[in-house]
Design goal:
six-stranded mixed β-sheet, globular, 10 helices, 355 residues, alpha/beta, six-stranded antiparallel β-sheet
């Protein structure tokens, strides 16, 4: 997977920019709030996923402008493609001049991984961030997973509303059964997809962590299920009474979590900050390797301002590990990549890009 050109117009603080990137490393330098992350984000959105910045996407259209546009020309398995994203009050996607029904339709066509400062909390933060990692990673490999997940979450939201009202109106219990059936049918599929992905990544993650940590520790990963496929439907029905008081659906894949075991102990509870960062990095790099194993090529690697957060050993490992991928790395301090031998450096200042 290689990007050949990127054009951006009226996107956040970038009025007009065109980048012709190197096929290996591309460093995007500049002071804070100049537009570096906007470029990384614009590329990431072509993966079909939402912004990595926050859960609620704000409009990326530049102030006083009606529309923003990003165009990506990329090569995948020897075939050149052109993808376009247009932003107004809605987001529209086009692939080779043909409109897509949903921007998520780009999933699996353009593959990328992104690592941002927020990802350093993949281990220590709550389970939602780990589920999001899983959902994005699986969605890139199996685009059908995205619609299954959307249908599941929609049904959970409806059930939550119904169980809040059930104590006031018992007649709506028939609606509860309808949405519980939808939760169960989609939830079983989600569980199977997640189990399949974890089984794949179990074979990759420990080796990458050994390289990143200097070989001193042993890492294992597992999926903690809120309910097993065998008892999911039964537990969903049995939880109604308790859920009426809490107002939430207490069982299902939206309560799953990832568990990291480092030298036989839970890394979230007992791992040091350095160990937790190494696990988060290893998880992202492992996800890229899974894409390579299944699709036949590495995804584009996006590193948003994380090098300064890492010690020299981890910086060196990342730069060496991704040297065969096309990568985009944003940083404030060029000294973080002083050993870079090949690639291009772009400078961003007040939304303008200089090469």
């Amino acid at each position: 997977m290689k990007i050949k050109s990127i054009k951006i117009s009226n996107y956040r603080n970038i009025e007009s920019a065109e980048l012709l990137p190197d096929s290996s490393m591309n460093v995007i330098c500049g002071e804070n709030a100049q537009g570096k992350t906007n470029i990384i984000e614009a590329i990431w959105l072509f993966s079909g996923a939402k912004s990595f910045r926050n859960s609620k996407e704000s409009s990326p259209v530049m102030f006083s402008k009606d529309k923003a546009k990003c165009e990506l020309v990329f090569e995948s398995l020897g075939v050149e493609n052109t993808a376009v994203l247009e932003f107004t009050d809605k987001k529209k996607a086009f692939l080779n001049d043909k409109p897509l029904s949903n921007p998520s339709g780009l999933a699996g066509i353009f593959n990328a991984i992104v690592f941002s400062p927020a990802d350093l909390g993949l281990v220590k933060d709550g389970p939602a961030i780990r589920r999001r990692f899983l959902d994005i990673a699986i969605g890139q490999l199996y685009p059908n997973y995205i619609s299954i997940l959307q249908n599941y979450m929609r049904a959970v939201k409806q059930r939550n509303q119904i169980i809040k009202d059930l104590k006031y109106d018992a007649s709506i219990s028939t609606l509860l059964e309808v949405f519980e059936k939808e939760i169960f049918e989609n939830g079983i599929k989600i569980i199977e997809y997640r189990k399949k992905y974890i089984e794949i990544i179990k074979e990759i993650l420990p080796e990458i962590y050994v390289g990143l940590s200097g070989g001193r520790e042993n890492l294992e990963i597992d999926l903690s299920l809120s309910s097993s496929p065998q008892d999911f439907e039964e537990r969903l029905v049995l939880s109604r009474k308790e859920d009426m008081y809490s107002g939430i659906t207490s069982v299902g894949p939206h309560r799953d979590d990832l568990i990291f075991i480092l030298n036989k102990v839970n890394a979230r509870n007992y791992g040091s900050q350095g160990q937790q960062r190494s696990i988060a990095l290893s998880l992202k790099l492992s996800g890229a390797q899974v894409i390579k194993n299944i699709s036949g090529e590495y995804p584009v690697c996006l590193l948003d301002d994380v090098m300064s957060e890492l010690d020299p050993q981890r910086q060196g490992y990342i730069l060496n590990h991704i040297r065969d991928w096309q990568s985009f790395l944003s940083c404030c301090d060029p000294s973080n990549i002083k050993n870079l031998e090949n690639g291009k450096i772009f400078t961003v200042k007040k939304g303008e890009v200089f090469s």
